[in-house]
Amino acid sequence: MELRIRNLSKTYANGVVALDKVSLTIPKGMFGLLGPNGAGKSTLMRTLATLQECDSGSVFLDDIDVLDEKDAVRRLLGYLPQDFGLYPKVTAHEMLDHFAMLKGLSHKGRRREVVDGLLQQTNLFEVRNQRLGGFSGGMRQRFGIAQALLGDPQLIIVDEPTAGLDPQERVRFHNLLSDLGQDKTVLLSTHIVSDVADLCANMAIINKGNVLLCGEPQKLIDAL
Ligand code: ADP
Ligand code: ADP
């Protein structure tokens, strides 16, 4: 699906302009949103994930009005926020099974199939019976993706996922996202240049709520 953002603006109550007429077109595949801390990335991600209101502008996911048709967007969306909590005492399998039930997968056998599939896809099948409290940072992030993928979303939004991961885990996480980008729209926010350069077909650079550049990573890097 294609996400079209036009003139999106947000000023917080304290006067901080987090988004200043942001316009971006995000096609199917991997798209990287690169910017320093405070650039407005999380504000944009939360808005696209229908979790926060903006002051003005429009966002369309194909022909769905994202700012208006929130339920429709939520059915198509998988969102991994920057900081998410996990219940430490339940296992990966128990937790996913529970969320799958909440998603309406009431048939036990079918649920098992979906949950096991997601655990395999995120390389967590071997540790499915371990408690989430013992998971490493990389395992937590991959579990977050598994959770976000329940319901087979077409748009996946991931906010600063690789901060704090060791190099091996980053590669693993990148491979997982690349696979998703084959047939879905994946929006990744990061302040790490190599995340977008290695991974994304398209990217934008954002700072102080403004889109500075947008295009293919290699072309933008060559032009610097
Ligand atoms: P990051 O830069 O890592 O995305 P921030 O520090 O901007 O994170 O924000 C972390 C959380 O604190 C967010 O949920 C945001 O809404 C909130 N926050 C950030 N800055 C302010 C602020 N000036 N006043 C109130 N809440 C803020
Ligand atoms: P990023 O994710 O790129 O770090 P954010 O969207 O978190 O950027 O923040 C953009 C700007 O808005 C920052 O200056 C931040 O401090 C401010 N901000 C974020 N959330 C809030 C909030 N809830 N209230 C006030 N200011 C905020």
Automatic annotation (TrEMBL):
- Transport as UniProt keyword: yes
Keywords, ordered alphabetically = ATP-binding, Cell membrane, Membrane, Nucleotide-binding, Transport
Q: Where is the ABC transporter domain?
A: 3-224
Q: Does the keyword ATP-binding apply?
A: yes
Molecular function in Gene Ontology: ATP binding; ATP hydrolysis activity
Entry similarity comment: Belongs to the ABC transporter superfamily.
UniProt protein name: ABC transporter ATP-binding protein
